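Give me structure tokens for this 343-residue protein.
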Amino acid sequence: MRIIICNAQVPFVRGGAELLVEGLRDALRQAGHTVDTVSIPYRWQPHQHLLDSMLAWRMIDVTEVDGKPVDLVIATKFPSYFVQHPNKVVWLVHQHRQAYDWYGTSFSDFSNTPEERVLRDQLIRADTHALSEAKAVYTISQNVANRLKRFNFIDGTPLYPPSKYSGELYGAEYGDYILSDARLDAAKRLDLLIEAVALMQHPIKIIMTSTGPLQAQLASQIQHLGLQERVIMRGFVSDDELINLYAHARAVYYAPFDEDYGFTTVQAMQAARPVITTHDAGGTLEFVRHQHNGLVVDPTPQAIAHALDAFAGDMTYAKTLGERGPVSVASIGWEQVVRALVK
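Here you go.
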């Protein structure tokens, strides 16, 4: 088949959605299909630009390219699913969350004004229409499917994406640090981790990789609490280095707020590392079971510190829970994804 994958791109930002699109492209090509990706940059401030981005995608008709038909279009995150095609399938990463489940929280940039409320209603109605056009709607997690049903009254089938490191991750000796590779932004709640480190009883190190808009703020927090020797901000690391960090970690911290999916969880379990997360972490909880392959605690520094100490002070406990990780994510693979999306 000739297949186009659609993805909305925030310039200069690379995250899980981009990895998903690249992985899907490669898996479809390996399965024998002719595949390309189409991406359009989008802005959301001021909010009128959201409507502009929706319209931009709506004006694109990729039924054929250069006189040759396109058999299938796979749309991913907002607003790529506004693209027009008679055989459109959606693998929903997420919608514009500031107007959905984040609305009314500190994570949303929407205000409670008549103008903003009207814009939000327009966005949700338009989303519902565009998503209803799809021949099938899959979501990257049950959590995303639940939101889709709650706000748009549309059923979605969970279809978990594999990590780009699938087949490369491995577990080695349980080391003397706890790893966090989450992007440094507010929704990942790394400030809670830093506060928790200040309350720990066992002086194990924390290694934080990645970059993000809160990098300077988190560095300042570490310095203010005098944790420069305990919390190491490594920034961007190579793929090989990240795989090695997973392999030797004592455990992995990943406690975002209501996460869509979270590759970190899957990667930690493939590397046989227990995961520390929270009761409100969203898609992460579809894999982490408390005291089975990780610890699920309240989103407070005190509770997180206790969980960190549980692994920092007992390598055997970390090993016991970590070794249950691989089987928890063993069913996630590109073969299953391709089979579902291409029919």
